[in-house]
Amino acid sequence: xxxxxxxxxxxxxIRCRKMAPVVGYTNIRGLAQSIRNLLVYxxxxxxxxxxxxxxxxxxxxxxxAQEKFSLGLQFPNLPxxxxxxxxxxxxxxxxxxxxxxxxxxxxxAQEATQLDLLEQQANDxxxxxxxxxxxxxxxxxxxxxxxxLTYVLSRWEEHLKxxxxxxxxxxxxxxxxxxxxxxxxxxxxxxxxxxxxAVERYMKSFEALPKIAEYHASPKYIKWPILSPHxxxxxxx
Length: 237
Prior knowledge:
By secondary structure, the chain is an alpha+beta fold. The chain has nine helices and four strands, in the order αβαβαββαααααα. It has helices at about 1-20, 35-40, 65, 90-100, 110-135, 140-160, 175-190, 195-205, 210-215; strands at about 20-25, 45-50, 80, 85-90. It has a four-stranded mixed β-sheet, with helices on one face. A hairpin with a 4-residue loop joins strand 3 (about 80) and strand 4 (about 85-90). It comes from Amblyomma triste.
């Protein structure tokens, strides 16, 4: 009986491990952080698998080349997300999947249309800074981003004046993307946020969410670096 029980416990443990979701990315904040935040908020126990970025000039991701074609990914890339239902790449596709899985997506056709728009606007915040960070300080690319950031923040300020979250009163997967886009830019140019109280209130509300506040105060959370070491901004202080 005892050997049988021990064998059963081992089998249950193995199955539980197999069912635990995995988020694969490098050891930076980057495009995976919105995914990590959402899973933490929903109380999901997951493996945060981090491939350490190596030194210049190659910046090779330690272990990724050996694993990338053996993970069951249709289009191998980072970040990836695996659970007992899917093996996904593309950060937006992953967030959409998690939104549907955890009831944080649209409930009506009208909400779907609005979330489509808000998702892309939030993603523009992220990628606007990514593109700017490819150029050194003082470059035309940086100046263009800085000028555009003032306008973009004014539009989000107007939108959030009458809404608790991006869609309204209900938190959705888009908020996890939007928070990252806003916070990256706040780290980059904090003075740009001074005249946007609704944006600041929104960010504080997100940071105070159950589990998020605890996670952000823990060593598991990656506040910095935001981007990879080959960027002019986002890695070195």
